[in-house]
Amino acid sequence: MKTIKTKVAIIGAGPSGLLLGQLLSKQGISNIIVERVTGEYVLGRIRAGILEQGFVDLVREAGVADRMDAEGEVHEGFEIAVDGVSTRIDMKKLTGGDAVVCYGQVDITEDLMAARSSAGLETYYEADGVELKNVKSESPSVSFVHNGEKIELECDYIAGCDGFHGVSRQTIPAELRTEHERVYPFGWLGLLSETPPVSEELIYSKTKRGFALASMRSETRSRYYLQVPLTDKIEDWSDDAFWSELKKRLPVKAAANLVTGPSIEKSIAPLRSFICEPMQYGNMFLVGDAAHIVPPTGAKGLNLAASDVATLYKIMTRVYKEGDKSCIDQYSEIALRRVWHGERFSWWMTNMMHNFGDMSSHELEGETFERFMESELSYFTSSENGKRVIAEQYVGLPYEELAP
Ligand code: FAS
Ligand code: PHB
Fold first, then answer.
1. What's the total number of domains in the chain?
2. Among 127, 17, 19, which residue's Cα sits nearest to residue 65?
3. Is the CB–ligand 1 distance for residue 305 below 6 Å?
4. Does some domain include residue 311?
5. Distance from the CA of 305 to the center of ligand 1, in angstroms?
6. If we measure between CA atoms, which residue out of 74, 390, 65 comes closest to residue 216?
7. Is 340 part of a structural domain of the chain?
């Protein structure tokens, strides 16, 4: 058994773990990341594409923003189309100047991995049997097996950045955990292609055939999504079938701009809202998808992970720079306030933008629920105040500071 020490043990080398590790290192707070799979595997997961300003500021503070600033595209608005009729949500005007940046999660993760390795910071990939120990004590630890060797990582704090299927959340005893969950009766079929986007801004499109989203990664790389039944399998969807259905769900002008091509990646993701309360237990903190999941309709998943990272980073900085340990009790409350806002917005956008058909939802059934949601969407996209509500949430609510 080999024993190693650090101040903060980070479980998971996804965006949450890597961003937290980079920020802590800038404050001279030692940290070691323990990741279950290889770095290549992490980079193979095509996920988010829209970064809130708060996320962008954090990446700049971490000193990892060069490529994002050079290649990321600022988006000042996006479109919501209902049965082919488009409304532009002018985020910049409606929020007094705020916008979002279109830059892929894979790119951010790549940049953070490169920064971590060039700084010579320790990451144990392909770590097996990760176990969190004594998290309620002043000397928690993480044990795992790496290259056949058993390792005990002694630390002061553990950041559980290990995603929805990780082990950290289970460290909170079931009787102390409250889990809120809503599983949606459909999924998103995503496709990535080396083709130019159909429009300069994102298009969220609701049609009688179902929801579609036209997004992008660059001027030459597009990301598209289609709402599909949960029973669909990826083998049910050839590229041609995807393109033909997408064309039917986009507004006419966008459909006319559609350039098709071979899929680089194609996958079906289930949609769920999930929140675990509390987000901390003793000296263990849950960060990002380890604590919460949103349906991607509001582009909040990665962005909520970033605000968790920001709060934990402020707390760790105060603990080690000012010796104030009392602030660690603030983490869960502050993180959850913003998480619930992001969860509600994502749930609301999902309910408004998708066809539930005869699938029941809430206390309302089928047609009645559909009609309520049609009316809700029509109000919020036709009134200035309604559009402002959407814009304020989409660019991201402000990050909360620690209490003094
Ligand atoms: P992650 O899940 O990214 O990373 C957790 C890491 O922990 C993984 O590398 C995993 O291998 C590791 N791990 C797990 N168990 C472990 C263990 N026992 N020991 C060690 N390591 C362990 N968000 C958006 O904003 N927009 C989108 O369009 C969008 N699309 C998505 C599509 C899909 C299919 C999925 C699954 C998510 C999507 N998301 C989207 C959300 C996604 O971007 C997450 O919010 C983001 O990956 C969160 O990052 P992390 O919290 O780092 O979790
Ligand atoms: C994406 O580009 O992957 C993306 C953008 C916005 C969303 C969801 C996904 O709401």
1. 1
2. 19
3. yes
4. yes
5. 9
6. 74
7. yes
Going by alpha carbons, the residue nearest to atom 46 of ligand 1 is 302
Question: pTM to 2 decimals?
Answer: 0.96
CATH number at residue 295: 3.50.50.60
181 burial class (0-12, 13-18, 19+ CB within 10 angstroms)?
exposed
Range of the domain at 176: 2-75+103-181+273-354
For residue 125, indicate whether it is catalytic.
Answer: no
Residues 6+ apart with CB under 8 A from 105: 15, 46, 47, 48, 49, 302
Among 3-7, 41-45, 192-196, 339-343, name the one with the lowest average pLDDT: 41-45
Supply the pLDDT for residue 361.
52
Q: How far apart are CA 74 and CA 189, in angstroms?
A: 26
The pLDDT of residue 158 is: 98
Are 289 and 163 contacting, i.e. CB atoms less than 8 angstroms apart? yes
321 part of a folded domain: yes
At 229, phi and psi to the nearest 5? -60, 150
Alpha helices (runs of H) in 251-363, residue ranges in sequence order: 252-257, 301-322, 331-353
